[in-house]
Amino acid sequence: MTLEAAPTHTWPLAQPRRRVPRAFTPADVAAFDAICEPASLRYVLTPGSTTTNAADYPLAREVASNIPIYDAADLRHLGPEARDAAMGELHDVLLTGPGVYVVRDAVPAAIVDRATAALERIIKREEGTGSGGGDHFAAPGHNSRVWNAFGKHAAEDPASFAAYYANGVLALCFESWLGEAWAVTAQVNVVRPGGRAQIVHRDYHLGFQSPATTSRVPYLSQLASQLLTLQGAVAHTDMPLESGPTLLLPYSQTYGPGYEAYSVPAFQDVFAKRSVQLPLRKGDALFFNPALFHAAGSNTTADLHRAANLLQVSAAWGKPMESVDRAKVLLDVWDELVATWRDGSLSHADKDALVAACCDGYSFPTNLDKDPPPKDGYCPAPMLDVVRCALGRGANKVEAAELLAQLAEKRRA
């Protein structure tokens, strides 16, 4: 028997090791312009065309200005396989697609109106005391901003809060980008007639840092940053183009050095040349990758106060921009939660969306001396699991308060 010689392979590990650079090379405005030109074939993350092909997004009703438009009715009541497929499509839109999509009628207009009435009371009180918030990227005095509108809404009107966030379509959008255990925060923004456009920017995390700070962040961490947050907005008024809906630059999120480049005038010029706007109706939702170049537009109307609930949703392992006292939110809306849990009029997806929005769905950080991993697993029970069990057995508000206090004590350092 003759043994054949073993084939010779050149394994990658046998090659001289190539050091991965820590920082981006200097930004190239010509490459950025080519990425964002609708007919371009230049791309950064994966090969492909920067013209949105409707066939790539079969769940979308249409494509307008390179942006897929979905209808909430098509995203409700999906079975497990269809739901996974929908999440895959939405994820692809944000990662290597245009980076932005719209969901028509994401929140029913009647529910939006109830929430708007509660939020307007909050705005009036805060402006009466001089405590109303400013904006990150717009001149002061041109809008009304409510920080932590999520917690304030729950305290102001638990019923309308519960109706608003018992929304499986919103939860589907959140999970598609961030996975489970997402954490939602919300800020209300009202732009008055005459309000000027924002400066073009990227969003949280690195979009809120100075260029000097960002340049010291390794480029792989810059790319990873966009995966930690989902930016969204629910229109609380109709938003015709003259009211200044958000200016968007499709595919700009695929440009790697964008967190360092968006403040450079030459890149701002590309944005001014290539950005698009879509009119929105009350109840429509807009979702986009935080790395997308964007800016709220100028409100040139005489009498339309453009209002939106800005949703900033964080992955379990990202730090949210706002701190929310979720135990207080839970107790503020506990009676609504109990009624919703028992109410057969809502789908399981809508009920679960409401509870998930109110809770911390992640086990960490915690004090592992007092809150050790269970014998059959690695993670202590998160607030979400504790609350689901309490709702399942019909706990009242007093019992819920005691459970939440015990959980807080276990997690306290």
From TrEMBL:
GO terms of molecular function: phytanoyl-CoA dioxygenase activity
SUPFAM superfamilies in UniProt: Clavaminate synthase-like (SSF51197)
GO biological process, one term: fatty acid alpha-oxidation
Top-level division of the source organism's lineage: Eukaryota
PANTHER family according to UniProt: PHYTANOYL-COA ALPHA-HYDROXYLASE, PHYTANOYL-COA DIOXYGENASE FAMILY PROTEIN (AFU_ORTHOLOGUE AFUA_2G09620)
Name of the protein: Phytanoyl-CoA dioxygenase
UniProt source species: Vanrija pseudolonga
